[in-house]
Design goal:
The chain has helices spanning 3-26, 29-56. It is an all-alpha fold and 57 residues long.
Length: 57
Amino acid sequence: MGIAKRAKHLGEMAEGKAKEITGKVLGDTRLERKGKADQAKERVKQAVARGKRSLKH
């Protein structure tokens, strides 16, 4: 995964964290869960990319 994709994934994780925190502050459990789900999705994408890189070498 290139630097641009890594930066994009980190940005999306930050966006998910912002949603989670906003949901907690506002008491909106749906928004909080959406933020946590977004973060988990990005962690999976990063793990897949790490796996691909390890198989290449």
